[in-house]
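Entry for the shared binder. Reason: the reviewer on the internal report wants the predicted structure included alongside the sequence.
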Amino acid sequence: MLAGCSGAPPAAQTLSARDITRLPRPWPTAQAAANDAPPRILVVYVNETTISNGDHWRGRIATSTNVASLEIRTESFSFTAQRSAFGEFTFDVHVLDLPPQYRRGYTLQIIARNAGGARDERYVPIRFL
């Protein structure tokens, strides 16, 4: 058994498609936090959890103000979301053409890190068609 392998993500950190595809109104304000405080992911929104070729896949994430970076990743890809303000991150990806071997289900990891490297994570089941 490999020590680096992990099982299912913690249930408390796993978000359902129904929960994250509805844009909260009003959008929450960032939670003020000291630089060395643990980072927090407050709200996650993505426009789709089933993504097809040609789709624009967009997301918005509210965090505590001490989040220095926000990574969006699966076992096949990784990118950082753009910070538009303290505690506010977005991404917009135009999915052009996925090879057949990448058209399947994934567990999306959303990882917020503060400058010291502490992290908060959320997991979302997604599917590329």
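Summary line for the report: The chain has a mean pLDDT of 92.
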